[in-house]
Amino acid sequence: MKTRTLLLVTAATTLLALSAFPQGGNEASSDSIWGGEHIELTVTASGAEIEFDCANGTIAEPIPLASNSGFKLKGTFTREHGGPVRENEPSRVAAATYSGAVENGTMHLKVTVSGKEPYQEFFVLRRGHAGQVVKCR
Fold first, then answer.
1. Which of 26, 67, 122, 135 has the fewest CB within 10 Å, making it most exposed?
2. Distance CA 48, CA 136 (A)
3. Quick one: which H or E segment has residue 93?
4. What distance lies between CA 7 and its chain's CA centroid?
């Protein structure tokens, strides 16, 4: 009886310990995904990675996600195009500013790129929702 009880306690403890550690390591939790029309943002420890329909971007600073918090952060914006990337094709990475606010699980985001090819767009994203992104490939 003691051996059986010890075995059950050991098995239960092992299962409990394993469940405390996420499996896969690289999978984003639903709290780190923010999505909206034409955009999906994945929060990382150092900022975020963003997918747009025909572009991608990064935010190079942590995003304050507390409710009612505003932000203005630096990052990059890279335009994409359909078809193959040509050899010796110039990089289309541009400096970008990502500004907005978070309130009750909703992020209002303004993306601003200045320079040769200026771009400005507004997005509404919801925490835990996948983005509705259609890549131009």
1. 26
2. 21
3. strand 93-103
4. 43
pTM, to two decimals? 0.74
Question: What are the angstrom distances between the C-alpha of 62 and each of 9, 43, 48, 66, 96?
Answer: 42, 8, 8, 12, 15
Residue with the two structure tokens 């309130």: 103
Place of tokens 């289309």: 92
Rounded CA-CA distance 51/130 in Å is 11
Report the alpha-carbon distance of residue 35 to residue 14 in Å, rounded. 36
Q: Return the biggest CA–CA distance within the chain.
A: 78
Query: Tokens representing 16?
Result: 């409990």
- Asked whether the beta carbons of 98 and 111 are under 8 A apart, the reply is yes
The CA distance from 42 to 63, in Å, is: 11
